[in-house]
Amino acid sequence: MGEEMAARPPAGDHTEAELDLNTLDEALLPVGHRSGFVAVVGRPNVGKSTLMNAYLGQKVAIVSPKPQTTRFRQLGVLTMDRCQVVFVDTPGYHRPLDKLGEYMVETTAKAIPDADLVLFMADVSQPPTEEDQLLAERIRLDRRGIPVILALNKADLLGPKDVSERIQAFRALLATADWTLLSATRGDNRDALLEKIIAALPEGPRFYPADQVTDTRVRDLAGELIREQALVFLHQEVPHALAVSVEEYKERAADLTYVKAVLWVERDSQKGIVIGRGGQMLKRIGEAARQELEEELGGRFFLDLTVKVLANWRERTDELRRLGYAVSGERDR
Ligand SMILES: Nc1nc2c(ncn2[C@@H]2O[C@H](COP(=O)(O)OP(=O)(O)OP(=O)(O)O)[C@@H](O)[C@H]2O)c(=O)[nH]1
Ligand SMILES: [Mg+2]
């Protein structure tokens, strides 16, 4: 199935509008049509993937309360009649502790000079951290005149008396950047930020067909959705040591997809935790993942999950490559 995921049709009867969008030939794009790549960067857990998914109205990138959830560069294409915004969701910027971390940070760093706009996301409910400062420094060095917007997220968690002090502290990181205080989950200022993003993009044609929402293959998204559910149930070091590879993805019937996936961990003890007593943990993860796949991708799914040990995979370039984390290059599955 190497297909990329198409945009979910809007709810209700929008057939006419959809047709218009899909058949609009480049020459017919409205005067002043804008387009461009928006690198969504920030330290882990600030809400980058949440915001991109909210703009797209569907889950293209997985989300979890645990830091370092996103490991790949993930595109989210938002097409409107007047613009096409290509969000580039990136892994959280941090001080890497292993080769996987180096790959993640490199992925983020590479997205910055390639972008038309950098969206620096931060968690405004906490003071700036060293990671925020390191990233701001990197942006100052690498952006080469590219505009930056500071998206100060999680405003819903910010007490009113801290607002002005916190805004000042984050603005000090990138003094010339425009900024918006928002809540990606509650929606406050989300539309206002989108308008700022669109206004900052150059005029230009579409990069992707109007009905394409990402460049992630469906089978890779399935692997990510399985990992997302594993992150819900697993704690401490296990989520970080976990990788998921999809070995088979087959439509067995019109309405039934078979997915065979391996959950890789680094040690026997972690394997025991992921399987759980009497297989209970793996069963819970599998059941939750099946529901998630059915909700996000539609149709029924049959999941065949196994847990295997790949000693120290986060430190081994060859194994990282095999799992799709191609160091110094793009994803090469
Ligand atoms: N209260 C609150 N929580 C939020 C908001 N935005 C995101 N979150 C939560 O923050 C957590 C992290 O969200 P993600 O979207 O995975 O964050 P991320 O920046 O993509 O994280 P990494 O992929 O690890 O870099 C999740 O539990 C979200 O539900 C917000 O505006 N308010
Ligand atoms: Mg993320």
Characterise this structure.
This protein has helices at 15-23, 48-56, 99-111, 130-142, 163-171, 190-200, 218-233, 268-275, 280-297, 317-322; strands spanning 4-6, 34-41, 74-79, 83-89, 117-123, 148-153, 178-181, 212-217, 243-253, 256-265, 300-309. The protein is of the alpha/beta class and 333 residues long. The chain has 2 domains: 32-200, 3-Layer(aba) Sandwich (Rossmann fold); 216-322, GMP Synthetase, Chain A, domain 3 (2-Layer Sandwich), CATH 3.30.300.20. β9 and β10 form a beta hairpin. α7 packs across α9. The longest helix is centred in the last third of the chain and has 18 residues, at 280-297. The radius of gyration is 20 Å and the shape is globular. Residues 9-16 and 329-333 have low confidence and may be disordered. The structure holds guanosine-5'-triphosphate and magnesium ion (MG). The site of magnesium ion has 5 residues, from α2.
Topology of this structure?
Elements: E1 4-6, H1 15-23, E2 34-41, H2 48-56, E3 74-79, E4 83-89, H3 99-111, E5 117-123, H4 130-142, E6 148-153, H5 163-171, E7 178-181, H6 190-200, E8 212-217, H7 218-233, E9 243-253, E10 256-265, H8 268-275, H9 280-297, E11 300-309, H10 317-322
Parallel strand pairs: 2-4, 2-5, 5-6, 6-7, 10-11
Antiparallel strand pairs: 1-8, 3-4, 9-10
Helix pairs in contact: 7-9
Bound molecules: guanosine-5'-triphosphate and magnesium ion (MG).
